[in-house]
Each structure stands twice: as structure tokens, then as C-alpha cells.
Amino acid sequence: MSEEKKDVESNDEKSSDFDIDPNPKQEWQTREKVMAEKVAERFELDAPVVFRGQYEFTVEASRIVQILRELKEDEEFAFNRLTDVTAVDYLKLEGYEERFAVLYFIYSYEHKTHLRLRVWVDEDDPRLPTVSGVFGAANWGEREVYDMFGLEFIGHPNLERILLPTNFGSFPLRKDYPLRGRGERDDFPRLRRGEKEDL
Amino acid sequence: MGLEDLLPPFFATKLQTLLNWSRKNSLWPMPFGTACCAIELMSTLSSRYDLSRFGAEVLRFSPRQSDLLIVGGRVCVKMMPVLQKIYLQMPEPKWVVSMGACASCGGVFDTYTMIQGVDQFIPVDIYIPGCPPRPENVIDALQMLQEQIGSGKK
Ligand code: SF4
Predict the structure, then answer these.
(1) Total number of domains constituting chain A
(2) For chain B, is the Cβ count within 10 Å smaller at the N or the C terminus?
(3) Cβ–Cβ under 8 Å, residues A180 and B111
(4) Domain assignment of residue A107, given as a range
């Protein structure tokens, strides 16, 4: 039992390291690792966070558009698919740079590799540049992030709410938003029996 | 009703009874199915349970042609204005059935975007409990409603 525990712990230690596994056993692990090393070298990025063979780089908001464009257009990387754009609200959790993080999940059909990019967004000035000019798929993803977290994407062609009604006043996936809302669900006129349609 | 005012009281009462009788036996439901309850509603209407045996045969997807609104399923804040519009578009006399836990009280979905019971915003005549209600419950509700219409209570 204690031996098993040790194993798990030592694995965890390793996973915070860039070289998660010096000799990957699976072919896809090698692929991901080689690609991550190439990306880190090309853009001079800090060591990525590694979790179960997935690599995540943190980049500054000012560089995200240029980096994504190069990752997409350069033959060497060819990350031609944006799987998802989403965000996380860390609120008051310790150990995080800012309150919000926006995450970009990209995938290369050609090299069959994944990559995740993280951009920290300040709570007082929740704005960052849009990448919808690079990936068309970011258009709706960014609208959803705006809808749920209230992060503004500068230069977005149509930054409107995508899921909630347009007059909805708050951003419900922020962690300080109450589960039952702030009265939005009780805010309708009450119809009585025999009421006539306003034509 | 303008007609009743022109007739002697005895005939007017009889006429009302006749009208109620005909209304209760030819309900035209308008299904407002937004979730899983609508599936059960479909099975109630199709051949096995066959709601038409009880005089509610013709479903109309246009509110202007129907007089019984069946709200089956979850209603969210974006849908509520639509539901109210549909209710207003239906011609009088009209009745509303709130089918299932979600339509009646929000069910298990006690969140910011779910209406906690459509009866807060539109008048409801009959509630059907269940998640989803069985077709028998729906038939039972229909018969209860018919009784009330027939006796002139609604
Ligand atoms: S009451 Fe149950 S079956 Fe009906 S809509 Fe709600 S969850 Fe679905």
C-alpha cells in the first residue's frame, strides 16, 4: 500500500517537470513532446505545465494573436484546428497570477498533436485581443466566453451574447455569481386570465 | 357572449350548457414541448394511449387555432417571453395545463436560468405531477379539465 502511494507521489513530482517521461512508451507521447519542445524554442516560451502528456504554455495577451497565427500557418507546426476557446475563473484561489484565464485548445491534423495556450486576464481590466481573425471558430467561442465571464475581446466582429437573452445583466459563470441568479428568473410580467394581446 | 344577452334567461342558460359541452369535447391542444415531457406527450397522443378517444385529437402548432396550451418541459428565461406571447395569441376561451415537475415548479433545475413554475407568469388550470408524468396522468388531467369546463367552472 505504502509503496503504491509512493509511486503516485513520484509521478506527480515528475508531471510538473518539462520532461515528464524521458523515454515515452507510446508513440503519441513522443509526438507531443517533440512538438512542445519545438514550440517552446521557436517562441521562447517558459517551460510548459505538463499533465498526462498534455502540454500547456502560458503566453502574454499581447502575443497570443501572432503566436496562434504562426502556429497555424507555419508548415512546421500546422495547428490548423481550434478545438475550443474557453475561460476559467479562479476568483480568490491562491497561487494564480490573475483571476481569469482564457484557454485555447489547438490541434494539428497533419502532425496529430495537441497544444493548449493560456492567457491570464486581469480582473479590473478584463480585455484581450480576439483571435477570430486567425481561426474562424474562435468567433462563437469568444462570444460564449464573453456571455459567461464578461471578458471583452478587442476587435471581435460581433461581440454579443450568444446563449443568454440579450438583456441579461450579469455573467453567470463567474464564481461570485449566485447559483439562483440575481432575480433574472423572476423578472417577467404576470399575465392574468382574460388578458388581451397587444396588437 | 353577445348572443346570450338577446335571449330570455332560460335559453341563455341552456345555450351556455350546450357551448360548454361542445367545448369540452373538442379541445384543440397546442403543445409547448421544450424537453423530455414532450416525448411523453407524444406517446400520449399516438396510437397506444390515443388522446383522441377523449376529445382532444387535433394538435395545432399555431396558437391561433387552439384553445388548450400544454406546457411540457423546462422553460428558461429566454423562452418565457415566447410562452407568454403564445398564451396571448390564443383565442378565448383558453386553458393551460402545466405538465411535469419542471413546468409546475422548476423541478430539480433550481438555477439562475430556469423559471420556477410557469404559473408565476401565466394562469394555469391543471398541474400534472411526475417526471415525466405517465400518459395515464395526462389523460386524467384532460378529463379533470373537461369536467370543469363542462360544469362551467372554468
Ligand atoms: S419534469 Fe422531468 S421529464 Fe418533464 S421536462 Fe422536467 S426533467 Fe423532463
Answers:
(1) 1
(2) N
(3) yes
(4) 24-183
Burial of A172: CB neighbours in 10 Å, binned 0-12, 13-18, 19+: buried
Best mutation target among A182, A193, A196, A198 (most B Cβ atoms within 10 Å) is A193
Give the whole-angstrom CA distance, residue A78 versus residue A69.
10
Range(s) of the domain holding residue B139: 28-150
In whole angstroms, give the CA distance from residue B94 to residue B28: 10
Within a domain: B136: yes
Task: Select from B41, B43, B74 the residue to mutate for testing ligand 1; criterion: most ligand atoms less than 8 Å from CB.
Answer: B74
User: Over the stretch A140-198, which tens digit does the pLDDT of each residue have?
Assistant: 999 999 999 999 999 999 999 999 998 888 999 999 999 998 888 888 889 988 887 77
What CATH number has the domain bearing residue A85?
Answer: 3.30.460.80
| Count of domains forming chain B | 1
Per-residue pLDDT tens over the stretch B16-71: 888 888 888 889 999 998 999 999 999 998 889 988 888 887 888 899 999 999 99
pLDDT winner (highest mean) among A10-19, A135-144, B46-55: A135-144
Whole-model pTM?
A: 0.81
ipTM of the complex: 0.80
Helix (H, G, I), strand (E, B) or coil at A103: strand
